[in-house]
Amino acid sequence: MSRYHTPLDLVRSRPVEGPVACARPDRLAIAATWFQDNFPGEVLYAVKANPSPWVIDALYRAGMRWFDAASLPEVELIAERCPDATIAYMHPIKSRHSIRRAYFDHGVRIFVLDCEAELNKILEETGYAKDLILLVRLAVSNEGSALPLAGKFGAGEAEAPDLIRTTRAHAEELGVSFHVGSQCMAPGTFRATMAEASRLIVKAGVTVDIVDVGGGFPSPYPGMTPPPMADYITAIRDAFEDMMVLENADLWCEPGRALIAEAVSVLTRVELVKGHQVHLNDGAYGCLFDMVHAKWPFPIRVHRADGEPSQQTAEFKLYGPTCDAIDTMPGLHTLPADLAEGDVIEVGMLGAYGTAMATRFNGFGDVETFEVADFPWTSLYTGGEAEAPAPAATGTEPRVVPFARAQRRRRNRLMKRRG
Ligand SMILES: *Cc1c(COP(=O)(O)O)cnc(C)c1O
Fold this sequence. Notes:
The chain has 419 residues and is of the alpha/beta class. The chain has 2 domains: 25-260, TIM Barrel (Alpha-Beta Barrel), CATH 3.20.20.10; 264-372, Lyase, Ornithine Decarboxylase, Chain A, domain 1 (Beta Barrel). The protein contains 12 helices and 21 strands. The protein has helices at 7-13, 25-38, 53-61, 72-81, 96-106, 116-125, 160-168, 187-204, 229-242, 257-260, 289-293, 391-418, and strands spanning 3-4, 20-23, 42-46, 66-69, 86-89, 110-113, 133-137, 145-147, 173-177, 182-184, 210-212, 250-253, 264-274, 277-280, 300-303, 313-319, 333-336, 344-347, 368-372, 381-382, 385-386. The strands form 4 sheets. Strands 1, 2, 13, 14, 15, 16, 17, 18 and 19 form a 9-stranded mixed sheet that branches. The radius of gyration is 22 Å and the shape is elongated. The two termini are 36 Å apart.
């Protein structure tokens, strides 16, 4: 992967056909280190947010050894690149073939389920294995999330206690998991959801070894500045201490967005300016999927290979490259008034659900990747610390660290036992 100092250097050094992903592995390492140092338990990277090989490799180099895979290809990707990693197969609905392959070919022992039919599939396809670590996915409210995910997966209040009890009988270790929704803007949502999970565990009347609080940790997008990440850690740690679980129970989380969003921006080329219409080579079927379909606010700036764009601005409507009318970015964008063919628009904060979303529709979808070393638009992490304003961060540090160490010791024991 060629390396440039900044995206502008890249634009000035080579023709950008694009789209081009500008990768910042150093930023990813900082986020990964922050999570591993501060989350009082196991951190599983949610592969679906960005399965690019450079992302997996950079996480691995930063010490990440646990991965949340949602499909057999994701299991295979991690098995291939991270030989000693622990892979959790966390899609509540899995094909029988993929369960078999994951268990027998790739050593996967951790599976999630949200109903008895899926439990039976897992048991049948693993030959009623005795070493399964099974998590029951709970349906929870997604209030407080910018991108709710509720309604599709999860055992509801009525079924969950029975399912937890039934699963206990087949699991070497039993856990509960949930997802509060992506880009959760309120740390209290984790606290409330964990209290809800605790109630369901009490109703089930069995012991639980693992509490997996899922993903949903936010990133700073324009107009969507989340509370400091340390507040989420505090909320989760406090709620965990109040939960009715085994004293030595494990705590897991599955961040996707918060680890990778900041670390990638995407360059898309202006192919034509027609009045106030700007036609780009990326859009609704490419890396800008969320910009269109989730109307997500991404930061934008313009790079020109020769000379500087005008300081004067005008409002433009942005269009993607495919023939589908859906391929139109919502709203208007304020850009240099002399925007012209060949200019490059850099869209920031696209590490999560950016390149991962690109399709082949209309023959588009190839994305080149180059490494850059500039600071991203904004960051929740600076040099391994959660960025200011985060007065709570220092106050919580002394409690968080020893707990995290204790959790790691338990993990090491577990790893040894599993051989
Ligand atoms: C998508 C997903 C994640 C990652 O979510 P983020 O909002 O990107 O942190 C984690 N766990 C599960 C089960 C998911 O489906």
